[in-house]
Structures are given as C-alpha cells and as structure tokens.
Amino acid sequence: QYSLIKDVVSSLKRHRMHEQQFTHHPLLVLSNFGLQQIQVKLMASMFQNMFPSINVHKVNLNSIKRCLLISYNAETQLLDFRHYSVKVVPVGVNKALKKLLQEKFPNMSRLEDISELL
Questions:
Q1: pTM (2 decimals)?
Q2: Any idea where the Brix domain is (predicted)?
C-alpha cells in the first residue's frame, strides 16, 4: 500500500514542501530490526547503506530537514515506511525574538529602538 505525494499534500492543512529539503540526506531511524534472522539483518544493512551515515557529534542540526522512519513488524513481516519533514524552531522565547532567530525580519517601523522589540 502507498500514497502518492499529491494525495498527501492535498490532505495537509499546511504543507512544507521546498527544494532545500532534499539538498541533505535524511536522518534514518530503523525500528525493530534487532532480530537475529538473516533476512532482517540484510534488510537493515541495505537501508543503512542507501544513505550515508551521519556523525551525531559533528552534524549541524539546521541541516537535517527530513527523517526517514522504517519499522519492521515481525508478525506480519511488513515494513512501515514514513518520511517526515523536520523543522528546527527556538522554544521558550517570545515571538519577536523567535522571528529574529528564524531570520524573519519583523516590521520595526513603529519602534524607536531594537530594545522595544525585545
């Protein structure tokens, strides 16, 4: 079973599709591939080799735009394949500062000084 991208986009209230999402490799998450069966190990190895490994100590979090989750169900022997869009946003700051951190420039025509914004 699968869904076409046009069906997924049409079902979303706010879709986030832009070309910069596909400039970097996705973060690959494999779930339930720890079984000792040779075919499960082969599948895990195949998925890991499809995408380059990411060094978690050196990676820039802003460069990760997608996450690919592949989950194996041993009972049904089916794979669930989910592809997520990831957006890094600042948390715990006021709205004006959040705009500055996301490189969106607020309208400062009513302000005398930058301190009024912050």
A1: 0.65
A2: 1-118
